[in-house]
Amino acid sequence: MSSVSPIQIPSRLPLLLTHEGVLLPGSTMRTSVDSARNLQLVRSRLLKGTSLQSTILGVIPNTPDPASDAQDLPPLHRIGTAALAVQVVGSNWPKPHYTLLITGLCRFQIVQVLKEKPYPVAEVEQLDRLEEFPNASKTREELGELSEQFYKYAVQILDAVSLEERFKMTIPLLVRQIEGLKLLQKTRKHKQDDDKRVIAIRPIRRITHIPGTLEDEDEDEDHDDIVMLEKKIRTSSMPEQAHKVCVKEIKRLKKMPQSMPEYALTRNYLELMVELPWNKSTTDRLDIRAARILLDNDHYAMEKLKKRVLEYLAVRQLKNNLKGPILCFVGPPGVGKTSVGRSVAKTLGREFHRIALGGVCDQSDIRGHRRTYVGSMPGRIINGLKTVGVNNPVFLLDEVDKLGKSLQGDPAAALLEVLDPEQNHNFTDHYLNVAFDLSQVLFIATANTTATIPPALLDRMEIIQVPGYTQEEKIEIAHRHLIPKQLEQHGLTPQQIQIPQVTTLDIITRYTREAGVRSLDRKFGAICRAVAVKVAEGPHKEAKLDRSNVAEGEGCKEHILEDAKSESVSDTTDLGLPPEMPILIDFHALKDILGPPMYEMEVSERLSQPGVAIGLAWTPLGGEIMFVEASRMDGEGQLTLTGQLGDVMKESAHLAISWLRSNAKKYHLTNASGSFDLLDNTDIHLHFPAGAVTKDGPSAGVTIVTCLASLFSGRLVRSDVAMTGEITLRGLVLPVGGIKDKVLAAHRAGLKRVIIPQRNEKDLEEIPGNVRQDLSFVTAGCLDEVLNAAFDGGFTVKTRPGLLNSKL
């Protein structure tokens, strides 16, 4: 028997009331201090004390919540543990509190409480004279090897004063726990020999665990999952390099305790590796005729885009191992770029997955996070492959022009490897850390403009322009796709509502002004909702919506037409009306449902005085017409520009005024005082309406010259003319971009003549035939030709022979 090791404690101890557990002699615990009494004890005794005895406290288990600041001291347990405060840590969040690390020394019994405030102090009697007994020491050490928690009857053991009583209570508990744990180990050894090392290091259960309980079943399930995972790795068709990595990781997983954070990370990694479609793919449908019919049924117009898809199918039919092309559809919103990507996947018989890139500013979204980071996960490319389950899907990278950049990297740079056919067969995600073949994936990117796409990324993609629709194309799209879709979504049938093509044209020209058809689709939705209300109210004898006898501001009213000569029923009155007729949507019904027209033709009104001209602009939303206004007043020869103009457009304005000043005598342009010096005692103000919209670019040069020429000559610019083109100081007209979108904008606005640079004549071939028939095109190589075409009767005495005025 070893020698006795007495521990002597002070006869008066400050009492720390804790409800977080029972501290036994020889054990260590952390406890939170946040009640007023305990906080005062720590501040007065521990933080200010200097002697060793000032760090000895009396720890009393307390059933009531010690955080309550009751005035009276709660009933105290008579037996406590003297403890040594080893560490004190303070914090102010979410409220002031301390965390104590305390070690139990021996037990004591409260003789009497000496004081209660500011913290309780009691006279105590020491109960323990600790002495090591071989049997107890051996039992405790053996249990410590197998279990981390063995305090089930902590309070009862604390209250056992005599040594004999304590041994009688604790040793049977310890022996029973040891036998149970040995039996558990023996059972697991027989179950599977190769799992010995895993069992030896697994966390031991609480003393209350009995073999065969739910916890035991959970471990069995985890073990079975690991065995199943190992089987999947052996039978998978992943490349050799990936297989080696998985075998190495599964071995690490077997040796790893489940409580380690890396256990779940490694298991998730292995599950992803076996779920990836390393060699699983779909078979392409390569019937060119069927593909053409399917594309034509799903999408009207878009001939260039559909032609490129059919070309890919044809080459794929001749060469099976063709690498997937990298296509980029560029066009305004609402023209069907995303839906075309879905149709391409449907045509090929492939899986489709959309990845939204708008606003992405972290390169880890593309390439994944390294597994050393907490919460790491694969990038969107690998995650998308896991979702579709095949290695040759159609990936739509939506809004690639709206990628951001931040301190976390440049996602556009990370896409360089993904979208390079010469590199993406060996794409390495940071999370996987092994190569994956992306060469069979058909990538389709969409963008509104190429201006914001980095040049290196743009170079890797095949750009296919998807321009806006003409009015005729919108009418066809509306009656083929939009109206049937809205009728289905609102539970209506063609027998309940009719929208004639003339009504559709009114909606397109008076209620929308866009390159795509999204606003048009919303207008049809509003009409269907209004009709759904009328249908839900009950049967009707006649269903034409009219504003007859309807007061201003009232909602949509149903008007029963009884006139036998009515336009909609003139041929059927003698035969008798059917009990129900479809609701006919005409212009009056549009006004009731959609309100007054949003876009009235105001071109002729705005060009009713000198100093106004119409230009054509390109925006990511499509082409737009743009008015330019000029005025002059007495001043000091200053040029004022307003309308949120960029630097390039400001320079175009200065070029225009300089060219006009140098050619003032030729065109007989004078200021208010009759001088050919146009800025002599004269200020000029140029304004571009829609001042809240930023404008820039060189294509407004010819419009500014025409506007100023009109101002100084006093002549009106033709109200049916729009123009675009860059100018030089010598009066040349240079080519610009976006001709098709600009021409379509002029056509939507009802204009009849369009002036474009001569070197843009080749772009007219992309204009639909019906639009070319409605418009007259003037191709100009110099400003003389522009002015001659912009004014009735020409602008100079002698028209230059180079003028080409063609009706195409």
UniProtKB/TrEMBL annotation:
<dbReference type="InterPro" id="IPR027417">
    <property type="entry name" value="P-loop_NTPase"/>
</dbReference>
<dbReference type="GO" id="GO:0016485">
    <property type="term" value="P:protein processing"/>
</dbReference>
<dbReference type="InterPro" id="IPR027501">
    <property type="entry name" value="Lonp2_euk"/>
</dbReference>
<dbReference type="InterPro" id="IPR046336">
    <property type="entry name" value="Lon_prtase_N_sf"/>
</dbReference>
<keyword id="KW-0378">Hydrolase</keyword>
<keyword id="KW-0720">Serine protease</keyword>
<dbReference type="InterPro" id="IPR054594">
    <property type="entry name" value="Lon_lid"/>
</dbReference>
<dbReference type="GO" id="GO:0005524">
    <property type="term" value="F:ATP binding"/>
</dbReference>
<dbReference type="GO" id="GO:0006515">
    <property type="term" value="P:protein quality control for misfolded or incompletely synthesized proteins"/>
</dbReference>
<dbReference type="Pfam" id="PF05362">
    <property type="entry name" value="Lon_C"/>
</dbReference>
<dbReference type="InterPro" id="IPR027065">
    <property type="entry name" value="Lon_Prtase"/>
</dbReference>
<feature type="active site">
    <location>
        <position position="699"/>
    </location>
</feature>
<comment type="similarity">
    <text>Belongs to the peptidase S16 family.</text>
</comment>
<dbReference type="Pfam" id="PF22667">
    <property type="entry name" value="Lon_lid"/>
</dbReference>
<keyword id="KW-0547">Nucleotide-binding</keyword>
<dbReference type="Pfam" id="PF00004">
    <property type="entry name" value="AAA"/>
</dbReference>
<dbReference type="InterPro" id="IPR020568">
    <property type="entry name" value="Ribosomal_Su5_D2-typ_SF"/>
</dbReference>
<comment type="subunit">
    <text>Interacts with PEX5. Interacts with TYSND1. May interact with enzymes involved in beta-oxidation of fatty acids, including ACOX1/AOX.</text>
</comment>
<dbReference type="GO" id="GO:0016887">
    <property type="term" value="F:ATP hydrolysis activity"/>
</dbReference>
<feature type="binding site">
    <location>
        <begin position="331"/>
        <end position="338"/>
    </location>
    <ligand>
        <name>ATP</name>
    </ligand>
</feature>
<keyword id="KW-0067">ATP-binding</keyword>
<dbReference type="InterPro" id="IPR003593">
    <property type="entry name" value="AAA+_ATPase"/>
</dbReference>
<dbReference type="InterPro" id="IPR008269">
    <property type="entry name" value="Lon_proteolytic"/>
</dbReference>
<protein>
    <recommendedName>
        <fullName>Lon protease homolog 2, peroxisomal</fullName>
        <ecNumber>3.4.21.-</ecNumber>
    </recommendedName>
</protein>
<keyword id="KW-0576">Peroxisome</keyword>
<dbReference type="InterPro" id="IPR003111">
    <property type="entry name" value="Lon_prtase_N"/>
</dbReference>
<dbReference type="InterPro" id="IPR003959">
    <property type="entry name" value="ATPase_AAA_core"/>
</dbReference>
<keyword id="KW-0645">Protease</keyword>
<dbReference type="InterPro" id="IPR015947">
    <property type="entry name" value="PUA-like_sf"/>
</dbReference>
<dbReference type="InterPro" id="IPR004815">
    <property type="entry name" value="Lon_bac/euk-typ"/>
</dbReference>
<dbReference type="InterPro" id="IPR014721">
    <property type="entry name" value="Ribsml_uS5_D2-typ_fold_subgr"/>
</dbReference>
<keyword id="KW-0007">Acetylation</keyword>
<dbReference type="GO" id="GO:0016558">
    <property type="term" value="P:protein import into peroxisome matrix"/>
</dbReference>
<dbReference type="GO" id="GO:0004176">
    <property type="term" value="F:ATP-dependent peptidase activity"/>
</dbReference>
<comment type="function">
    <text>ATP-dependent serine protease that mediates the selective degradation of misfolded and unassembled polypeptides in the peroxisomal matrix. Necessary for type 2 peroxisome targeting signal (PTS2)-containing protein processing and facilitates peroxisome matrix protein import. May indirectly regulate peroxisomal fatty acid beta-oxidation through degradation of the self-processed forms of TYSND1.</text>
</comment>
<feature type="short sequence motif" description="Microbody targeting signal">
    <location>
        <begin position="806"/>
        <end position="808"/>
    </location>
</feature>
<dbReference type="GO" id="GO:0004252">
    <property type="term" value="F:serine-type endopeptidase activity"/>
</dbReference>
<dbReference type="GO" id="GO:0005782">
    <property type="term" value="C:peroxisomal matrix"/>
</dbReference>
<feature type="domain" description="Lon proteolytic">
    <location>
        <begin position="607"/>
        <end position="793"/>
    </location>
</feature>
<feature type="active site">
    <location>
        <position position="742"/>
    </location>
</feature>
<feature type="domain" description="Lon N-terminal">
    <location>
        <begin position="13"/>
        <end position="253"/>
    </location>
</feature>
<dbReference type="InterPro" id="IPR008268">
    <property type="entry name" value="Peptidase_S16_AS"/>
</dbReference>
